[in-house]
Amino acid sequence: MSELTRLTAGDAELTINPDNGCRIESLRIAGTELLRQGERYGCFPMVPWCGRIEDGRFRNGAEVHQLPLNAPPHAIHGTGRDTAWKAARTADGDGRTAAFTFELGDPWPYAGRVTQLFELTEDGLTLTLGVETHADSFPAQAGWHPWFNRTLGEDGKDVRIDFTADWQEERGADHLPTGRRIGPTPGPWDDCFGMPGGVDVTLTWPERLELKVTSRAEWVVIYDKQEDAVCVEAQTGPPNGLNTHPTYVTPIEPLEIAATWAWRRL
Known about the structure:
Layout lengths: L4 E5 L2 E6 L5 E7 L2 E2 L9 E4 L5 E2 L3 E4 L2 E4 L8 E2 L9 E4 L7 E8 L7 E10 L2 E10 L4 E3 L2 E4 L1 E2 L10 E4 L3 E5 L5 E6 L7 E5 L4 E7 L3 E7 L3 E5 L5 E7 L5 H4 L2 E3 L5 E11 L1
């Protein structure tokens, strides 16, 4: 079993568990925990796909592949969160960066490598995911699924989520996009939004903290239907995107995504 990796920068503290899907277990700012605690929570990488894949099946050219149905009747959130990752760089000289990798394999039908990089500063965290192939090209997605606490502290007020999207992916009864784009609707949400200029979402815990999630990626899933936490998931495509908006990893072109969480005290 690997040890937890801890990064610090000023009063920011990040804890990563490489054995539990290279998940961020904790992000504390001046001693205040931002992420919901628990084995399923924190923040985990979604790779090599994000959200649900319809019936667990996707096509690559003439080949149709079946994935395990871990959210019947669909497959959800990739295999990276269920995998032990290896340290590529556990920490630099000042303990602010770390990198981890895992090898793609069964039940994913293609060989490749995923790399995740963490870069912590006093006022922000930058996350980077890269997906490479060892042989054949294949469609893939990547992103993150953070569970931010709804309130900070016992007397904290509910977080406010602010964003401007160009569209919302209409969600069907099966929780998958229908293929129709609609105008953004009021929350609560369990929905995917399109931001072709890049993801830009602000979380505000009144009188405590403001945190901006930004990425050059064009899609974000917002989930705020849980009593204890809210999710802002920057990702390279919508749910079921392996089938509807595939991005191909090739021997000369990996899939890459970066996202930054920048915070300021209020």
